[in-house]
Design goal:
By secondary structure, this protein is α+β, with helices and mostly antiparallel strands. The protein contains ten helices and eleven strands. The strands form two sheets. Strands 1, 4, 5, 6, 7, 8, 9, 10 and 11 form a nine-stranded mixed sheet that branches. InterPro entries: DUF1517, FLAP_modulator.
């Protein structure tokens, strides 16, 4: 019977460890801020204003190169005013050359837009995820993210751009606490981008026991003190920072066009990735989610939590 006893003990140990990891993985609550949508972006072109001799800046074409006005047809079709012959043929050739130049410039602009993912029909969208695992001593970062979430305007593109810049800046200010990191970028079309973004978002949110602070589309929600106390009693709450305790921050970004992020294998790679994300302009940013866990002070992730919940992170 001894082999059976040993087998049963081994199975019991595996089950106990599995449930222990599951409980630990659900112990920490998280914070969340962001918003945006994947509406079809539009690009507008404004014709540059021109100087007209004698007519001021942008004052129209009341005066031209011909005495007495008339800067319209004589300019576009000078052969009408010159009157046939070699002069008229030369004018026609000039007009055709200018027209060909304009057509080629337009086609080249459209081609450049398509190659960069700016085609207005179904443009290329980049869905990027950057995660950073920091030592739990980085409590200042936790406070910074809480402050940003409580004051941010997440209902506008300008506000979301500011959130992205402030969040990446907060991470860049604490390189001494960086331990783990990972990045992914997926290129997709607009019609499939929202599904991909939401899939990644739900995966990250499911790792929280609850969202104790949230500011999404300018809807600020914060758990009450009593709810936090109940959550803390049910989880493995640590009041002191130990060597195996961490904070994990996740940045999800949806941008128009192609976004390149380096594969993070070192702190230098992580610094470059944060700088590139923070530099995304407001006219390209479509959607943003910043998530961090734990959010409540005193709550931490253990080393086992990080291994189980974030297996793709690498040491930096």
């Amino acid at each position: 019977m001894k082999p059976w006893v040993k087998a049963l003990m081994a199975i019991g140990l595996v089950v106990a460890l599995s449930f222990g990891h599951a409980d630990g993985a659900l112990a920490a609550g998280g914070g969340r801020m962001g918003g945006g949508s994947f509406r079809a972006p539009s690009r507008t072109f404004t014709a540059p204003r021109s100087y007209a001799p004698g007519g001021g800046y942008g004052g129209g074409y009341s005066r031209g190169y011909y005495p007495g006005g008339g800067f319209g047809f004589p300019f576009l079709f000078p052969f009408f005013s010159i009157g046939g012959g070699a002069g008229g043929l030369f004018s026609i050739l000039i007009f055709l050359a200018v027209a060909n130049f304009l057509v080629q410039s337009f086609r080249r602009s459209r081609s450049d837009d398509d190659s960069l993912g700016y085609s207005t029909e179904n443009p290329t969208i980049s869905v990027a995820k950057l995660q950073v695992g920091l030592l739990a001593e980085a409590r200042e970062l936790q406070a910074d993210l809480n402050r940003i979430a409580q004051k941010a305007d997440t209902s506008s593109t300008a506000g979301l751009t500011e959130v992205l810049q402030e969040s990446t800046l907060a991470l860049l200010r604490h390189p001494e606490y960086w331990v783990y990191a990972g990045s992914t970028v997926q290129q997709t079309r607009l019609e499939a981008a929202e599904t991909q973004f939401n899939r990644l978002l739900l995966s990250e949110r499911s790792k929280f026991s609850g969202e104790t602070l949230s500011n999404v589309n300018n809807q600020l929600k914060q758990a009450s003190t009593s709810n936090l106390a109940v959550a803390e009693k049910g989880g493995a709450l640590a009041q002191t920072e130990g060597p195996g305790e961490y904070i994990v921050v996740t940045l999800l970004v949806g941008t128009q066009g192609k976004l390149e992020l380096p594969k993070v294998n070192s702190s230098d790679d992580l610094k470059l990735a944060l700088q590139q994300l923070g530099g995304v302009s407001s006219d390209r940013l479509l959607a943003l989610e910043v998530l961090w866990t734990p959010q409540a002070e005193g709550d931490v992730l253990t080393n086992e939590d990080v291994v189980v919940q974030y297996p793709d992170l690498k040491l930096v």
